[in-house]
Design goal:
The complex is a heterodimer of chains A (470) and B (225).
Chain A (H helix, E strand, L loop, with lengths): L5 H48 L2 E5 L4 E4 L15 E6 L3 E5 L16 E5 L2 E12 L11 E9 L1 H49 L19 H47 L5 H35 L9 E3 H11 L1 H7 L2 E6 L4 E3 L2 H18 L5 E9 L2 E8 L33 H11 L3 E7 L3 E9 L1 H4 L1
Parallel strand pairs in A: 9-11
Antiparallel strand pairs in A: 1-2, 3-4, 3-7, 5-6, 6-7, 8-10, 11-12, 12-14, 13-14
Helix pairs in contact in A: 1-2, 3-4, 4-8, 5-7, 7-8
Chain B lengths: L1 E5 L3 H15 L2 E5 L2 H10 L4 E5 L7 H10 L6 E5 L4 H9 L4 E4 L4 H15 L6 E4 L2 E4 L4 E4 L2 E3 L3 H12 L7 H8 L8 H15 L8 E4 L3 E4 L4
Helix pairs in contact in B: 1-5, 2-3, 6-8
Classes of the chains: A alpha+beta (470), B alpha/beta (225).
Amino acid sequence: MILSSIQKRVLLTIVLSELLLAAALATIAISYTRQRLLAAFDSALRGRAMSVAALVHYDDEANSRLGFEKSLAPPNLESSDPDLYRVEVTTAGVIARSSNWPPGLDFAKNGAPVKFRANGHMYRGSWLLDLPIMDEDRPASPPRISVFYAARSNGIERELVEATTFIAACSAVILIVTLGIAYWGLRRGLLPLRVLAQQAAQVSTRNWDVEVDLARQPDELKPLTQALNEMLARLRQSFVQQREFLGNAAHELKTPVAILKSTLQALILKPRSTSEYQNGLQDALEDLDRLEKLLHWMLRLARAEQWASGSSRTDIGVVELTDTCEEAVARVSGLARLREVSVRLCANGRSPLRADPEDLQIIWVNLLENAIRYSPRHGTVEMHVAHVGNRACVRVVDHGPGIPADEVPHIFERFHRGDPSRARETGGFGLGLALAKAFTEAYGGTIQISSEVRSGTSVVVDLPLSVANG
Amino acid sequence: MRVLVIEDERRLAENVARSLRENAGCAVDVAINGEDGLFMAESNPYDLIILDLMLPVINGFELLKRFRRDGHGNPVLVLTARDEKEWVVKLLNAGADDYVNKPFDLGELIARAKALIRRGKGHGDAVLRVGDMEVNTVSHSVQRAGREVLLTAMEYRVLEYLAYRAGAVVSKAELLEHLYDYNWEKFSNVIEVYISGLRRKLEGELSPALIHTLRGQGYVLRESS
C-alpha cells in the first residue's frame, strides 16, 4: 500500500539506506574505539605491572632472597584500591599479591589479556611475563619475575556506551534533516508531474493541448509529455476527421432528403389520379435509392479513411493490378461510347498486389469517369500501368480543358462540387475522388493530380507491391 | 407570374417547378447550373428567382452577388442546407429576400414564393381589389360585385398579372414574358383570346368595363371613369 506512492517509496528507501549506513558507521566506529580503548587500557596495565615488578628486590644479598617492598607501592595498590596484582618469581613462587586478591584465582601464563569477574566487578588483566632481575652477581641465569595485573574494565564499557549514544544521536539528526530535505526536494521534483496531470485533466474536445513548457520540464518527464502530446495530436486528428465527416454527412443528407420530401409533398398538394400516384411513388422510391446509395458510399469512405489512418485489414487476397484496370476500363466503356471518347490501357508486365479488387475498381472507375467527362468529343483517355521496383504506378491521362490551379487542392475533398463524377458510379454526390484518395491511402499508396489548363489532367496513383511480392 | 428555379438536383428542381405550376399558377423555368441560371435570370423579367446555393460552375452565393451587382431587383428566394445565423445574415446581406432550409416544406416554399411575388409587385394583401372586383391570389378565385366569376387557369393568370399592375399599361410582350416559360410557344394572338374571354366573363350590361385596350400600347386594368 505504502509502495503505491513514488514519494513514499523514495523516502522509505532513503530511511532504510541511512539506517544501514548509520549502523555500519556505528559498528566500525565503536569497534575501532573499543580497540583503541582496550589497547590504551592494556598498555596502562603493563605500565602498572612494570611498576609493581620494580618493587621486587633482594631482601638479603647473601641468600639471594627476594622481597617485595609493599610500602612503596603506588597509591592505586592500597587495600582500598580496586586493582588486583600478583607477583611470582621463578625461584620462589608467589611472593606478593594484592590484599583484595580473591582466594583460588589463578590464570594460565600467557600474554593474552583476560576478562574475568572478581569481587562483584568486571576486571581485565594480563600477565607481564619473565622479567629478569638485574643481578650483577649471577648474570648467567637471574631469577625471573612474572606479574599479573588487572583493573576494573567498567570505564571502557561506559565510554563505549557514550560513543554509541553519540553516534546514534548524530545519525538520528542527520536522518531527520535528510528526510526533510528529501521530502521537500521530492515535492518540488514531482511538481511538474502534478502540473502535467492538471494540464492533462484540462484536455477536452475543445482544448487538445497539454500546455507545458518543455524547456523547463525535467528530462524524465519530457518523453511522457511528448508522447502525451503526440497521442493527443493523433486523437485530435481522428476526432476532427470524425466530426467533419459527421458534419458533412448530415449536411449532404439534407439534399437527398429534401428531394424525397418534395417528391412526396408535390404528390399530396392536390388530388391526383391513380397513375399519377403510382408515378409519384416510383419517383419517391428512386429518391430513396439515391439516399441509400449516398449512405452506402459515405460508410465505405469512412471505412477506407479508417484503414488509411492505420487500422489493419484482414482477409484480402492477392489480385493482379492489370486485371482490375482492364475490368475498370470495361465498366466505363458505356460512358466512353456515349461521349465518343476512346480509352486506351497500356500495361507492362504483371503487378500482383494484396487488395480487395472492388476497392481498386472504385479508384480506377472514378478516375476514368472523370477523365472521360473532361475529354472532348473523339478525345482519348490513357491508362498506363507501370511496375517500378516494388511499386506500381497507375497514370490516368486526359486531354481535356484541365482544372484551374486554385481548384486543384480541393479536388480530393469530400462532396467537392467541381467533381464531375457527381453522377453514376458513386451516386453523384461528389464523393468519387475522395473515395479514390481514401482507398489509395488505405493501401499505403499516394495519389497526385497535375493539370494544365487547356492541355489536360493527369492523375498518378502510386501503390506498394511489397506485400504481394514477399 | 414567371419563376426561375436554379437547382442542380433535377428531381428537386422538377418538384419545385411542378408545385409552382400546379399550386401557384406560375410559369416556371429551370436552370441546372449557375452559369445558365445567371444568364437566364439576367435575360428574362422573372417575378421570382428560387436559387439553390450548391451549384456547379458558378455557386449560388456568387450568382446572387453578381446578379445584384448588375442592378437586378427581382425577388430572390434561396434554398440552403446551412442554417447557422451568421450564414443567414450573410445571405440576406448579399441580396437574398428570403430563404428556406433544406429539407423544406413545399407548401411553405409556395407560400413564401407567393408572398415574395406580391411584395415584388408592391402589394401587401393577398386579395387584389380593382373597383368592385376582387382577385384572391391564395385561392385563385375572382369575384365581381360579390359574385364568383369562374375563369380558366390561363385567364386567371392574365387577370392576376393585370391586377398586380392595375392602373399601369401592360404590353402584350410584357404579358407574354411573365406568363409563359421557355417551353411554351409564344403566339401573341393567344393573349387576345384570353383578354376577350376575361371581358366576356367580367364585364356585362350591369358591370362597367375593367380591361381597357390602348391601341398599339397594350392593356390597362382600372375602374371606368
